Sequence to fold (464 residues):
Amino acid sequence: MDLKKEGRASKTYVYISCLVMIGAFVVVCMISFFSEFGKHPDEFDVRACMDWCMSRWIWPDMRQMGLGLGDTYSGYGYTKVCNYTPYFLIFSKISYVFKQFMENLPYYRMPNLLLMAFLIVYIIRKIRDNNWLMLGFGICVQAWYIFAYVTADAEDFLLAFISIAMLADKDSFLWRTLCVVEPNGRTDAEDKHPVRIFDRRVVFGCIILGIMYGLMLLGKPYYFATLFLTFIILLFHLIKSEVNNQKALLGRYILIAGVAFSILAGRALLDLHYYGFDKAQAEAQMSEKYSDYDKNPTTPIEEQTPTYHMASKGYALSDLFDYEPNWFALSYKSFVAASIYYDGHMLFFTVIGLLYIAIYVWLGIYLCRHGDVPVFVFCTVLNIGSVVASIFNSYLIDCQPQGRYLLPILLATCYLGSRATELWERKAFRIVVLAASCISLLFFGLVETRTFIDLGYVRNLLSV
Fold:
């Protein structure tokens, strides 16, 4: 009887989780279609980057003149087209297709909507057996919001999420690639004799994984935390493997890493071709030409924004918090919500924070009691490292307490959730996770849509 009740409770968790995911996608679509251009971070120059790349297939020299590349520069004096990410080169082609028939609708936001749709379908298909997936994408508004507008963060998050989901699921493509089944039906984990290092299936799998990790290496640096977590877990897997199988496993690791770093090296070689060893000089040259006055290196230092490149101006790290004493509060608010600009709604921020703490502490207690102390400690240190990295980003580059810089914390927590398998059988824990999901969705849909959607703009849009 208890088993039947447990089965019904588990089904309820799956149904509600799926509804939350679908609801989040509906809200993201509403914001994407009905929010005016420029309502979202950096959208003016990012849309220009998307438009510029529609007919191009290779990263340009940032000093290139005469082809409109200058229009893609932001007030910070650089263009995202020349970042390492291939996001604009790839997804601008999708934008181009939608631009042909969307007229006044935001064609430039469509690629990220498609990425979110893919992610939600993936979660819905897997959520029954992998309840922990909700910790990676189902309880945080900011993770949904980055798909509502045009930003390369969406691609980076999706790749990082998929990499963690595969790392946590022993039946995933990752583990099938690393664990070859021999003709006798035994796996390399069971066989005491050496297995083949490669076959065609393994080579194909390693190349695909290498491409994924290579694209992550080209992405935003704060997702390196996810790569580092993956590296450590796979390293321990290698160490604990049967001695006879370690050579085969190491060979696959090397192939995956070789493909990944080849992608990174190829991108670096392109810059080497353009700038030689003087890329910093080229960046300084463009910064002088395109930066706003208060960020331009030629502007007298006393007239520059003090929180821009604070370290190079001689400020101490502590000065960052003198200029922005609410740095931690703003980072937290923009992590659990879509923006830092909220004066009220303290009930939401308090409740969701308490739910997050309850989930994390509950996971920690469970894992520590079941012999997973090293994994919990490592992930916790990694999460603290994400916060520290965000602080140094504000100190070294620009004071931006952005919640999206902290999204790798979700992914590390998701991995912890995958290790706490029996914890998901407890109804109380599932209720806490669902509460965090539902409250986040309600705030996102009922409060934040009013921030982004202008009904006057919608009426004008629909009347065209």
In short: DSSP finds 19 helices and no strands in the chain. Residues 1-8, 181-194 have pLDDT under 50 and may be disordered. The first helix runs from residue 2 to 34. The radius of gyration is 24 Å.
